[in-house]
Amino acid sequence: MVHSNPILIVGAGIAGLTAARQLHDAGIPAVVCDKGRGPGGRMATRRIGEQRFDHGAQYFSAVSPRFREAVAGWVADGIAEEWFQMNRTPRYRGRNGMNAIAKHLAAGLDIRLSTRVVSAVPEGKHWRATTEDGGRISAAGLILTAPVPQSLEILGGLQEELPNALRAVAYAPCFAVMVLLDGPSGLAGPGFQRMKEGPVTWIADNTIKGISAGPGALTMHASPLFTRVNYDAPAAEVAKQMMMAARPWLGGSRITDWQVHRWRYSLVSSSGPEPCFFSPSPAPLVLAGDAFGGARIEGAFLSGCAAALALLESGIS
Ligand SMILES: Cc1cc2nc3c(=O)[nH]c(=O)nc-3n(C[C@H](O)[C@H](O)[C@H](O)COP(=O)(O)OP(=O)(O)OC[C@H]3O[C@@H](n4cnc5c(N)ncnc54)[C@H](O)[C@@H]3O)c2cc1C
Predict the structure, then answer these.
(1) How far is the CA of 104 from the centre of ligand 1 (A)?
(2) Choosing a second label site near 46 at 20 to 30 A (CA), which of 56, 75, 140, 257?
């Protein structure tokens, strides 16, 4: 089979990488572009000094047979491991942070990082995509896995021809504050605390979690309400309020450094059609990601599988 044009996949999160792997395994070349400096998307891990922080997704479960099989493979390969159990069901983490799983999936694929796709237009039965640096990519099919508002932006005027359900997809925003301590935190094993009230909803100790050397490396997540109200506030103000709320869990240790990350799109609050959106014309188009498969890492994985299958079943070559 001769492939003149690859499939273009926008987004090297779990959905995009899963789709790319499956196309690759089926002998269909795929190019993955991501605006970020590393793969993983919201499965994000960052360093401050010597310490490692998961500042996006914290853990995942595996319910469907397909995802369970994938997770079992990652565990066998030493990429993922159980962090804790809830209702006797394992919750997993990347062994060296959540982005370790994305790095594992990305191995051997054609991934173009720091490459933002700004537009994609159909050209006959193909796609012509333009990147921020003026690059052009011709593609036999297009899989968009960015948060849906960003995917629709790439499609420009063409989005008007797509179902309204896609424009109704919504996500909650979330501040992540990463805090370095000069001593251990006051959290007990397995190293996290959920809060029902106040600006902070989640606080996790990356040292107890097992991805950071310590002594204290905390990730805090803010409530959607606090994030919405303070979205444009200076980072120092956001950090101050969240650190005050988390004080009971600092174990008396001193904060020596901190960083704020603003997740404009974190958890899906209003989903799209499951398990992906597919349109064969004017040129093969798939929208996929967590908004289509169940609002979490497992859902994004399953949506990535469905995206690849939709193109394969459409007879693309
Ligand atoms: C704070 C937070 C906490 C979470 N906690 C959990 C949790 O504990 N458990 C869980 O299961 N899930 C959790 N999630 C959700 C989980 O992270 C997502 O469901 C999942 O990672 C989504 O994967 P995805 O591939 O669909 O999208 P993403 O990971 O968002 O990937 C999309 C990619 O598209 C790229 N992109 C966007 N626009 C462009 C463009 N124009 N050009 C090129 N690239 C582009 C982005 O850089 C990104 O890498 C959390 C998310 C956040 C933010």
Answers:
(1) 16
(2) 75
Pair 282, 214: CB distance under 8 Å: no
Any ligand 1 atom below 6 A from CB of 56: yes
Tens of pLDDT, residue by residue, the chain (317 residues): 334 589 999 999 999 999 999 999 999 999 999 999 999 999 999 999 999 999 999 999 999 999 999 999 999 999 999 999 999 999 999 999 999 999 999 999 999 999 999 999 999 999 999 999 999 999 999 999 999 999 999 999 898 899 999 999 999 999 999 999 999 999 999 999 999 999 999 999 999 999 999 899 999 999 999 999 999 999 999 999 999 999 999 999 999 999 999 999 999 999 998 899 999 999 999 999 999 988 899 999 999 999 999 999 998 86
Residue owning the nearest CA to atom 21 of ligand 1: 42
Element (H, E) at 198: none
Say yes or no: CB of residue 94 within 6 Å of ligand 1: no
Q: Per the structure block, which two tokens stand in for 141? A: 């099919």
d(CA 142, CA 151): 11
Q: Tokens at residue 281, please?
A: 């014309």
Mutate to test the pocket of ligand 1, among 297, 298, 303, 305 (most ligand atoms within 8 A of CB): 297
30 C-beta closer than 6 A to ligand 1: no
Residues whose CB is less than 8 angstroms from the CB of residue 150 and which lie 6 or more positions away in sequence, other chains included: 265
Ligand 1 contact, 174 CB (< 6 A): yes
Mutate to test the pocket of ligand 1, among 32, 33, 42, 103 (most ligand atoms within 8 A of CB): 42
Residue nearest to atom 12 of ligand 1 (CA): 296
Cβ(222) to ligand 1 under 6 A?
no
Whole-model pTM: value is 0.97
Domains of the chain: 7-43+92-169+270-313 (3.50.50.60), 174-263 (3.90.660.10)
The structure tokens listed for 68 are 């369970």
154 C-beta closer than 6 A to ligand 1: yes
